Amino acid sequence: MEEIILILLLQLIYVPIFTLRTIFLVKNMTLIASFLGVMEALVYVFGLSLVFSGDTGTVALVVYAVGFGAGMLIGGAIENKLAIGYNNLAVNLMDKNMELINHLRDEGFGVTVYEGEGRDSKRYRLDILTKRSREDELLQRIEEYEPRAFIISYEARRFKGGFLVNSMKKVKTKK
After folding, report:
1. In the chain, domain spans
2. Which residues of 137-172 are buried (b: 16+ CB within 10 A; e: fewer)?
3. In the CATH scheme, what architecture does the domain 86-174 have?
């Protein structure tokens, strides 16, 4: 019975490490990904050896699989809490809402405004780059001022210059 519990616990450690390693690798944070890869391999080999060497048979395999699924949930929750990276939001508005634009800028968001031509009238697009950890806050602010806004969120993998990069440099130099 102890072996079964250990197999489950190892899966609850292994899969979140696997999930985070993959995310760090995709985000080009290879040093952290490499360290997590070593940890992942150690836990994986140890856990799998328990499954195949024990007398628990099918039960061990089922627990291993259930632990894998539960570990995916845990890994996803950890990644959402860490909110690694940046997102770019394209916010399409019917009218140029300067109250919203000024409020977002006052809250520290970099906002670029574009005027475009929709099917029936002018449209306005706000281009906003934000840390993932602030995306929910940003969406709430937009909803308060523009509940009918059409919003698309993209993951920003690389960027150079601009308001956000300059503001991050200022914060680093203050410390």
Report:
1. 2-82, 86-174
2. ebbebbeeebeebebebeebeeeeeeebeeeeeeee
3. 2-Layer Sandwich (3.30)
- Range from 30-34, 89-93, 139-143, 163-167 carrying the lowest mean pLDDT: 163-167
Q: How far apart are CA 172 and CA 75, in angstroms?
A: 30
| Distance of alpha carbon 175 from alpha carbon 169, whole angstroms | 10
Distance, in Å, from the CA atom of 3 to the CA atom of 169, rounded to the nearest integer, reads 51
Written as six digits, the tokens of 117 are 């031509």
Residue 110 identity (one-letter amino acid): G
CA dist., res. 87 & res. 101, Å (int): 18
| pTM (two decimals) | 0.68
